């Protein structure tokens, strides 16, 4: 959720495209169309989608509507990831490989081929994924419609890359990350921008 905590790290975005006509009215249906779908009972490694800002278990927005007044929208990106510990995978792969070696030796063969090893590893990982519950993560989103600015409560590049791709897929709108330089450039005139371009960063580690 991020934004409802005492402190938060966030990333700013600029919406590059104009909003389609009737966008706000159609948003609830868009959010439900691309809402998060649970994978607790499935062997998938990752799943993501939109959820309610106030409650990540609410994918129907029954608890709270995404519209906050006339200017703002709020929702969250939920990402569930299964993480099988490497040591667990290594152990069970070794056990499966030992079983396969015993089987092929009985058939007069001397070694397990590379392709067969790959198949065994994928099967073991598939089976282990069914035994580990996914770990949920949630990233709150605040969208100012009139300013065409959007904020998401994370600075992790992998999460941001996923957010940008899924946002475009869901709403057909392109995003641009706003760096401190980009924010300064947006507020300056051309003459002042030239001065900004020759500034050198300060080393605070001295």
Layout of helices and strands:
Elements: E1 11-15, H1 23-33, E2 46-51, E3 67-68, E4 72-81, H2 86-106, H3 114-129, E5 135-144, E6 149-152, H4 157-171, E7 175-177, H5 180-187, H6 190-197
Antiparallel strand pairs: 1-6, 1-7, 2-4, 3-4, 4-5, 5-6
Helix pairs in contact: 2-3
Q: What's this model, at a glance?
A:
By secondary structure, the chain is of the alpha+beta class. It has helices at residues 23-33, 86-106, 114-129, 157-171, 180-187, 190-197; strands spanning 11-15, 46-51, 67-68, 72-81, 135-144, 149-152, 175-177.
What do these coordinates show?
17% of the residues are buried. Helix 2 (86-106) packs across helix 3 (114-129). Strand 5 (135-144) and strand 6 form a beta hairpin. Helix content is 38%, strand content 19%. The model has no long low-confidence stretch (mean pLDDT 88). The chain is built from 6 helices and 7 strands, in the order E-H-E-E-E-H-H-E-E-H-E-H-H. The two termini are 36 Å apart. With 206 residues, the protein is of the alpha+beta class.
């Amino acid at each position: 959720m991020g934004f409802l905590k005492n402190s938060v790290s966030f990333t700013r975005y600029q919406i590059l495209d104009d909003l389609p006509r009737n966008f706000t009215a159609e948003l609830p249906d868009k959010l439900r169309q691309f809402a998060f779908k649970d994978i607790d009972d499935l062997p998938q490694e990752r799943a993501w989608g939109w959820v309610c800002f106030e409650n990540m278990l609410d994918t129907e927005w029954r608890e709270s509507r995404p519209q906050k007044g006339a200017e703002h929208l709020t929702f969250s990106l939920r990402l569930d990831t299964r993480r099988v510990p490497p040591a667990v995978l290594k152990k069970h792969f070794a056990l499966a490989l030992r079983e396969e070696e015993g089987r092929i030796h009985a058939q007069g063969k001397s070694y397990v081929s590379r392709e067969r090893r790959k198949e065994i590893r994928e099967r073991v990982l598939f089976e282990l994924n069914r035994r580990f519950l996914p770990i949920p993560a949630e990233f709150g989103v605040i969208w100012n419609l009139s300013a065409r600015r959007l904020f998401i409560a994370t600075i992790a590049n992998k999460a941001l890359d996923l957010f940008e791709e899924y946002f475009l897929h869901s709403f057909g709108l392109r995003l641009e990350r706003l760096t401190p330089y980009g924010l300064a450039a947006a507020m300056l005139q051309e003459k002042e921008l030239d001065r900004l371009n020759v500034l050198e960063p300060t080393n605070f580690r001295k």
